[in-house]
Amino acid sequence: MKDIFTAPFLEEMKRTTANMYRLGYDERNGGNISWMLDEAEVGEYLDLTNVLRTIPTGFDASALTGKIFIVTGTGKYFKNVETDPETNLGIIRIAKDGVTAELLWGYKDGGSFTSELPAHLMSHIARQSADPGNRIIMHCHPDYTLSLTGVHEMTERAVTRTLWKVMTESIVVFPEGVGVLPWMVCGTNEIGEATAEKMKDFRLVIWTLHGIYGCGKTMDEAFGLIETVEKAAKMYLLGAALPRINEITDDQLRAVAARFNLNYRKEFLD
Questions:
Q1: Which residue out of 102, 116, 156, 227 is catalytically annotated?
Q2: Between vectors from CA 119 to CA 158 and to CA 130, what angle results, nearest 5°?
Q3: SS3 (DSSP) at 78
Q4: CA atoms within 13 A on the CB side of 79
Q5: What φ, ψ does residue 27 adopt, rounded to 5°?
């Protein structure tokens, strides 16, 4: 059996969490990541018959029975994942009953997965229906995206138009736009259900005055979506107090969409 500490998925989690902490996307213990892993690959590093303990998930995830995830821990700082992954991460499998997670590795201090796990699992279920290739759910608190939610009309059309019009790359990276939720109590099944409903149509969901959820086939894709929203929000806010002399027009957005053959949300344009 191979050494788990050399597993590519573990190395990728270490790199990504360290980078997100460095960028300020995940202050303190803010933010969380879950990644649906390939069972055969995990089996090269762990004895899948060895269940260390079981943990209630707080949600009936029967649609994901048998699926294996690597998940950041509750109360854990992203900055510590790189030096102590076995304490700050866990690898879990959704048990046959759907409401229990079997711990296969990690959380060695007796800890558990993020309190947002139900929201993650609900979003995984939604994305598996929309695009089975999506395997990563990522939640964080980027500065400019969060600030935008305090000063901008928070509708999907309005936010998407602002992000599209301030930076040409935006419509190329997220042609379906961004989903938006009003402020809700975090760590609840209610916000998880609302997020998952949006995830049926969007790969990005902004939580007003809280942060953003993104998904992807790879860590780069999920992070890249969030990173692009954050850059566009920054560009908008840096110039928000000045007269806007130039912006990308709706016709120019259509031209970009035609050039890159994008399946974009046409109803978001005038």
A1: 116
A2: 65
A3: helix
A4: 9
A5: -65, 150
Question: Which residue range(s) make up the domain with 250?
Answer: 133-270
Q: How many alpha carbons fall within 13 Å on the CB side of residue 72?
A: 31
- In whole numbers, what is the pLDDT of the chain averaged over residues? 96
Helix, strand and coil in the chain, % to nearest 5: 45, 20, 40
SS3 27: coil
Residue keyed to tokens 């928070």: 154
Determine how many CB atoms are found less than 10 A away from the CB of residue 228: 19
The number of folded domains in the chain is: 2
| Residue 82 designated active-site | no
Taking only the tens place, the pLDDT of each residue in 87-107 is 999 999 999 999 999 999 999
- Bridge-based pairing of strands 100-106 and 136-140 is unpaired
Q: What's the pLDDT score for residue 58?
A: 86
Spatial separation of the C-alpha atoms in residues 46 and 42, rounded to whole Å: 6
- Flag whether 126 is in a domain: no
pLDDT at position 187 over 90: no
Helix (H) / strand (E) containing 93: strand 89-94
pTM: 0.94
Assigned token pair, 243: 């007269």
**In a shared domain, residues 85 and 168:** no
For residue 245, give every residue at least 6 positions away whose Cβ sits within 8 Å of its Cβ, in sequence order, or none. Answer: none
Measured from the Cβ of residue 47, the count of other Cβ atoms closer than 10 Å reads 10
Alpha helices, DSSP H, located in the chain: 8-22, 39-42, 85-88, 117-130, 143-151, 156-166, 169-173, 189-199, 219-238, 250-259
Q: Give the tokens for residue 263.
A: 């399946």
- Please report whether residue 125 resides in a domain: no
